[in-house]
Amino acid sequence: MDISGPAKDNKPPYENAADVGCGTGISTKVMAPHFKHVLGLDYSATQIAEAQSSIKEPNLSFSVGQAENLHMIPDKSLQLLTVGTAIHYFDCKLFFKEVDRVLLPGGCFAQFGYNSYYHEPRNLAFNPEHPFNPEVLRKLNDVVVEAFETILQQDRYKPALAREDFGVEPPYKETESTSRHEMEMSYPSNIISVVGYLKSLGLWQNYCKENNVESEKLAQQFIEKLRNIMKEVTDKPDEYPLELCTAMYVILSRKPLA
Question: Gene3D superfamilies under this entry (predicted)?
């Protein structure tokens, strides 16, 4: 399927995009070079405040809002609307009605998420005097998997991981999914930012809220576990460069031209 629609003959930057359920804006910022304006929306004022505090791109804006009521977005104004794992907490019937309202004809709806527990720290540093033991990487990965499984244990997103459609029914019939392919995203990282990334997930926030757990206390528990492992290879465990690799899927759905 040609997902680009009428935009394929144009060169970026395109006009307008929105990222719904954006959290701290990690995925929103990725779109900034490709659009004249990108709006990030999330129901959490705390998440939006954090996103706003780190804005460097002049074409980005963030706002508190509900997915089921995108009143701040005009009709037929977006070429792209994205959503991550937050979709599993939406009333999709109402949300998709709004998606259809705000997308231009030929516009694209993209939903992405994780297709496994696969969040693997990898070694980025090269030090001939202190070769990085593969066993250390395995231990790091075990802790990250433990963290991910902890926040998923009661989450409604967990059953979706076992389904080929990831629990999402795209809003338009003309769809293309890349979920059956290994699609990997990677982030330069260290043990502090690995846990910071996990903290930015809605899964983490929901777990802490539903289980009356302090986010920072939980984060420190995992940081200490990672720190103790890293001390096997470096005297600066918090700064040692790693790469966090994540297996992802994306579902694309294009609004009909007419």
Answer: Vaccinia Virus protein VP39
Q: Any residues with CB less than 8 A from the CB of 217 and at least 6 apart, and which?
A: none
Residues with Cβ < 8 Å from 186, sequence gap 6 or more? 122, 243, 244, 245, 246
State how far the Cα of 133 lies from the Cα of 116, in Å rounded to an integer. 25
User: With helix as H, strand as E and coil as C, how does 24-88 read?
Assistant: CCHHHHHCHHHEEEEEEEECCHHHHHHHHHCCCCCCEEEEECECCECCCCCCCCEEEEEECHHHH
| Burial environment of residue 115 by CB neighbours within 10 A (0 to 12, 13 to 18, 19 or more) | buried
Per-residue pLDDT tens over the stretch 158-211: 444 444 454 566 777 665 543 344 577 776 788 898 888 888 777 787 788 888
Cα-based torsion angle of the residue sequence 172, 159, 210, 192 in order, rounded to the nearest 10 degrees: -90
Q: Residue 135 and residue 31: Cα distance in Å, rounded?
A: 37
Question: Across the strands, what pairs with 69?
Answer: 66
This prediction has a pTM of: 0.71
For the domain 13-113+249-254, what is the CATH code?
A: 3.40.50.150
Helix, strand, coil percentages in the chain from 3-state DSSP, rounded to 5: 40, 30, 35
What's the CA gap between 83 and 113, in Å, rounded?
A: 9
Torsion of CA 31, 32, 33, 35, to 10 degrees: 80
Q: pLDDT value at position 173?
A: 64
Tokens 């999330």 correspond to 42
| Partners of residue 112 on adjacent β-strands | 250
Portions of the chain given CATH number 3.40.50.150: 13-113+249-254
